[in-house]
Every structure is written in C-alpha cells, then in structure tokens.
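Figure S7 source data.
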Amino acid sequence: MKKILVTGARGQIGSELVTKLRSQYGTDQVIATDIREANDEGPFEVLDVTNPEQFFSVAKKYEVDTVMHLAALLSATAESNPKRAWDINMGGLMNALEVSRELELQFFTPSSIGAFGPTTPKDQTPQDTLQRPTTMYGVNKVAGELLCDYYHERFGVDTRGVRFPGLISYVAPPGGGTTDYAVEIYYEALKQQKYTSYIAEGTYMDMMYMPDALQAIIDLMESDPAKLVHRNAFNIAAISAAPEDFAAAIQKHIPDFQIDYEVDPVRQKIADSWPNSIDATAATVEWGFKANYDIAAMTKDMLEKIKQSEPAKS
Ligand code: SER
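Tokens for the predicted serine complex:
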C-alpha cells in the first residue's frame, strides 16, 4: 500500500493531486504538507521544505514510502528573487532527496519546459537535447533533473519526474509563473468578456490541462522501472498554443470575448526562451503517457467548472 508525503500541497498542482491520490489510495495514505496552514480533510502537517529536521520528522512520523516534492517558486517569482529561488528550489529538493535516500522512499518531483533555453530546438523539442536555460528557475530545474538522476545512479533512489508544460486548472491558481495567463484568461472571459494578455500574440508555449498532468504523475510512478530508460525528467505534451489560440477557443463559447495585449517584458523574455512545442515520444514509449484534453475540450471544461464554482451573477 502506498503512503505518500506531498510537499507544496496547497499549490496549484498539490491542491488537486492530494484529492486525486486520496481517492485512489485512501485518505489516510496521503500526508499533505505545506508551509501554509490548512484545514484539510486528511492528514496535514506544516512543513518548511528548507528545514531538514522537520522534513525527516514528518516522513518518519507517518512512515511514508513515497515523496512527491512539489514545493517550489515558479519562473517569474524566481526571477524577481533569484537567491531565494535557489534556496527554496534547490535547498528543498536536496532535503527531499536526502529524506528519500535515508528512508528508502520512491520519489517524484516535477521539472518544467523552463529547463530549456533559447538555444534549445524550439519545435518538437526532443527528450535529450541542449539545455542552457537563461532563468534562475530553469537553472534550478536543470540542476534538479541532474541531481535526481545522480541520486538514482549513486544511491539507487527510485527518482522519477516529468517536464510539465504550463498547467491550466480551476481549483487553485498558479502563482508567479510565465504561463499563468492561460489560466487568468478563462476567469476574465467569464467575468468581463475580455482579457489583456501580458504575453504577446504569436508566442507559442506548451500547455496541459490539470487532469492530464495528475494522471501523468500517477502513471509514471506506477510504471515498471525496468522499462524506464529515462527518469529525470520526461517530456510530456498536450497543447501547443499562443494567446490568440485561447481567445479563439473561448470565442466558441463566448462570442463577444476580446483579447488585447500589454506585454510584460520580463515574462515575455522568459516565454521567448522556452520551446513552442514538445516531443513526448519517450514518455509514450517508456510508460504509456497519453493526454486526453486538447484546447477545445479543455476550454469547454474550464468554462463550465469555473461557472459552477462561482456564485451566479444576478
Ligand atoms: N508554469 C511554469 C511557469 O510558468 C513553468 O513550469 O513558471
């Protein structure tokens, strides 16, 4: 039976991953942790991932066999405070890996399209390619991928990871990411039928609907290790889109929806350094990765779900 400790459980991924894991493995089998207090339906502990003693003590207390380490700063926040990003993203990861090594736990942490840089091939970016990111977040992600592979090679820790595209969801908002516009646009479409995008028209990035992202984590963690040629971290992909593609998909449901642009140079520079689209063949071949949502299916579901969760307007 799995017993999973999730860090960053109140974040964009964690909020939904904990619910999904609990429905699959049982409420008490999933220990949600976050630096922020929460009223949780299952086991919850406050955990600052940069504190190694606290990390060990929570993992031991619940006798977990798996760590899913999600706590991290996203790209734009990391750019505004690079030293803090290093401390949290790398310090937290190192503590999570040490706990996993010493307690012999299975380990997952996400990498990102941010692990690529301006010199990476931009279209159908291959699994194994040039990775010279120009952001602190990207530097953290590449170092993290290498560190996770190192812990596997050197200590036999069962480390696994995916490179997430921009994730789109309606439960918890992302915070401080470059791809956040692709979430905001849906809320604004419903609120005021218009959206001002901080990312320029024609800027393609890879995106994915949260249900596909959560399923990818579970499928990778349950996959047969003998079949894994790669580990940290797999390209996965669903939707390659620019702001105008989201606008067009939304207009099918809200015909009056309008988009305009007020480009934020910091986030635009980050976006320009990332791939347009990703080749996920290795994930498909090695553990059967599959995405179910394209932009049309995701848009329909996002708009319905946000409407359901917001009080009806008079
Ligand atoms: N969504 C993330 C960001 O924009 C990328 O991993 O920072």
